[in-house]
Write a structure and sequence with these properties.
Number of helices: 5
Strand content: 15-25%
CATH architecture of the domain at 11-158 and 221-262: Sandwich
Shape: globular
Distance between the termini: 10 Å
CATH topology of the domain at 11-158 and 221-262: Jelly Rolls
Order of helices and strands: HEHEEHHEEEEEEHEEEEEEE
Largest sheet: 8 strands, antiparallel
CATH class of the domain at 11-158 and 221-262: Mainly Beta
Helix content: 10-25%
Oligomer: single chain
Structural class: alpha+beta
Radius of gyration: 18 Å
Length: 303
Amino acid sequence: MRAKPSRAVTTEEIEALRRDGAVLIKGVLTPEWVDVLAEGLDAAIAVPDTMTHDLGPELRSDQFPSAHSPALRRIVDESPVAEIAGRAAQSPVRFYMDQLFYKPQGHVPPTPWHQDTCYYNVEGHHLIRTWVSPDPVPRDASIEVVRGSHLWNVTYRSLAGRDPELDAEAREIQEKAVPGVPMLGVEAHQGWSYFSGVRDMSAPLVPDIEAHRDSYEILGWDFEPGDVLVFHAHILHGARGDITSDHARRAHALLWAGHDVRYLHRIGQIIPDPAGLYAHEPKTGQPLGDFPDVFPLAWAPGE
């Protein structure tokens, strides 16, 4: 049985997600679930694997950490997070994948502005992120979003990946891409690398939000343990930094697929599909509901 949120998601919060593309839902996880989250993140941090990548000395990212952290698997399967995502988005949701982001104590680097959709082989308006942390994260170090950018109908170029215009070998990989198969660089025989995917150079560059902050309506929040940040995967977002923190920032980001999310083979796939999907040889346009063994229904209205 999935645990219930400590309070209901309000009509105002639902409207904020629809209108703004993001909403901080305060105090919906009990202290017990915050403890499970901390346990799961610490376990994953302690045991790096082939999906662990140091994006510089002050930021680590892990893909699919719940695959080897039982406590994080409980966050996926038993915690109220799926219901919070579904109620905020007004959609049934399927679990797609999760990530761990770790910034150690000390200098906190900023996270550049980006979208999430360009990294995955899926598309749909109800592609929803939840971001949770067992650590307090002040406004000047937490996630910011460009209000309403989830409605711009533009998919921007990924920030990571090999540049096919500069790398002949990468260009050859891109030309031989097979739908449903992750596009890896020459490092593939050594294990998947976050930076070995080939970027789609036909996609437009992310606007220089930071240089023109006054031209955009930027939302941000002071995050406390027990809060859940919910946002559309298509929204432009980043995180402020260049401050000094007296504690590490541990974060668990989960991606949930709503009712309209379909498979889309992207030229510039960076993050591989969930492992169980490859045997199905998915085709562009297929609903994720066609693969219930890979993407079981996590929450639906009426539950």
